């Protein structure tokens, strides 16, 4: 059973509710829509990361150490253990005062102007928070945000003609060069002189090359900046549209607020698909059927489908209904932070900065219109822009 307190219907899913939880397309690629089926894949030891351009990056020369998002096996397990301290609740709590000061300053500026563009302010917040954790602190954060945004706007079509792929590659190299020269290189230089408690200092201490540091920064750029920006906006949108839920959020305990945010993220996952490549054979069970996945097969895991699986989340799967009665071991966001070896390490960080922002922003008297929404193929994500509103 779910609470009667609701926060509106889903806004971002482009897919119909599937009739099959496991299917295969004409190219031989597997598509997984069920929660338990997706978890079987994500927790398997015979799959490797195949999304976020992982298979292209693995082929790059000069990358002895793979970025955390693309590594697998013992190398990945060791790295995750080492960097876990940067994303633990205790460490994240240390950033609270920085987050509060940053958000207070931006909102004060907005109140003075009597208007706010949520797509802009959410990016400025997300970039500053992620930059502190990663160590990208030696350049202008707003200009860095623009450079990262340009990189993630690229087309991820795997079937594009060869000449298109070549032009795409060259364009991306230019974007990477600008990001490296203006943001990453100054951060490396500063930390070679004086290491700090951040990811760049950590990987430099492990002997990473400048190219390897760059790819790691791109990884955290996507995870910590681009996705959190969109979540801040979609959470704001739902709560602004539902006054009862907004009022409850503002008086709720932190635990209850996290449950509300988790439910919104379940309905509106920022990353809509995950991809894995089979490195061995595997039997996948679903609804009393067994599917034979073979080495070399590509598997697309549909996060929306997993998050809407009625066996896991119950009825009204496309409605925001806080405090769903979920199975033991399933958290409120369900599959929105992934699962298994590559589950997002920055989940708590994203939720905390979103909560700090909402507890301040939602108290402002605003008039708003729905934002423009487009889709980013590279990370299978919705993108909200021109989320403009008047204050007062």
From TrEMBL:
Task: Give the SUPFAM superfamilies listed for this entry.
Answer: Cytochrome P450
Question: Gene3D superfamilies, per this entry?
Answer: Cytochrome P450
Q: Where is the signal peptide?
A: none
Q: Name one GO molecular function term.
A: iron ion binding
Q: Which domain of life is it from?
A: Bacteria
- Region of interest (Disordered), residue spans: 1-21
Give the matching CDD domains: cytochrome_P450 (cd00302)
Residues reported in the UniProt entry to bind heme: 344
Which keywords does this Swiss-Prot/TrEMBL entry list? Heme, Iron, Metal-binding, Monooxygenase, Oxidoreductase
Q: Where is the composition biased (Polar residues)?
A: 1-11
Q: Which family does it belong to?
A: Belongs to the cytochrome P450 family.
Protein name according to UniProt: Cytochrome P450
Annotated source species: Deinococcus cellulosilyticus (strain DSM 18568 / NBRC 106333 / KACC 11606 / 5516J-15)
Taxonomic placement: Bacteria, Thermotogati, Deinococcota, Deinococci, Deinococcales
């Amino acid at each position: 059973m779910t609470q009667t307190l609701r926060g509106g219907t889903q806004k971002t899913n482009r897919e119909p509710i599937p009739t099959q939880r496991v299917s295969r397309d004409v190219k031989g690629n597997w598509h997984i829509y069920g929660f338990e089926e997706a978890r079987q894949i994500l927790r398997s030891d015979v799959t490797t990361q195949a999304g976020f351009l992982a298979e292209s990056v693995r082929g790059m020369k000069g990358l002895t150490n793979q970025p955390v998002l693309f590594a697998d096996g013992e190398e990945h397990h060791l790295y995750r253990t080492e960097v876990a301290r940067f994303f633990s609740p205790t460490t994240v709590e240390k950033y609270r005062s920085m987050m509060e000061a940053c958000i207070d300053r931006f909102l004060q500026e907005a109140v003075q102007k009597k208007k706010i563009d949520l797509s802009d302010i959410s990016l400025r917040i997300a970039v500053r928070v992620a930059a502190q954790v990663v160590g990208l602190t030696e350049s202008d954060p707003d200009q860095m945000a623009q450079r990262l945004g340009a990189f993630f706007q690229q087309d991820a079509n795997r079937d594009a003609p060869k000449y298109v792929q070549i032009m795409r590659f060259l364009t991306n190299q230019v974007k990477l060069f600008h990001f490296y020269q203006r943001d990453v290189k100054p951060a490396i230089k500063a930390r070679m002189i004086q290491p700090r408690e951040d990811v760049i200092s950590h990987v430099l201490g492990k002997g990473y090359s400048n190219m390897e540091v760059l790819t790691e920064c791109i990884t955290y750029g996507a995870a910590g900046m681009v996705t959190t920006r969109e979540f801040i906006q979609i959470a704001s949108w739902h709560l602004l549209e539902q006054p009862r839920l907004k009022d409850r959020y503002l008086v709720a305990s932190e635990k209850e607020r996290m449950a509300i945010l988790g439910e919104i993220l379940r309905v509106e996952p920022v990353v809509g698909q995950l991809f894995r490549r089979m490195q061995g054979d595997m039997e996948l069970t679903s609804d009393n059927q067994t599917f034979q996945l073979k080495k070399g097969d590509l598997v697309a895991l549909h996060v929306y489908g997993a998050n809407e699986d009625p066996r896991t989340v119950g009825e009204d799967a496309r409605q925001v209904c806080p405090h769903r009665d979920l199975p033991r071991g399933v958290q409120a966001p369900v599959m929105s932070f992934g699962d298994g070896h590559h589950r997002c390490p920055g989940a708590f960080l994203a939720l905390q900065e979103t909560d700090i922002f909402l507890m301040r922003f939602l108290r402002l008297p605003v008039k708003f219109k729905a934002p423009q929404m487009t889709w980013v193929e590279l990370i299978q994500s919705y993108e909200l822009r021109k989320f403009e509103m008047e204050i007062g």
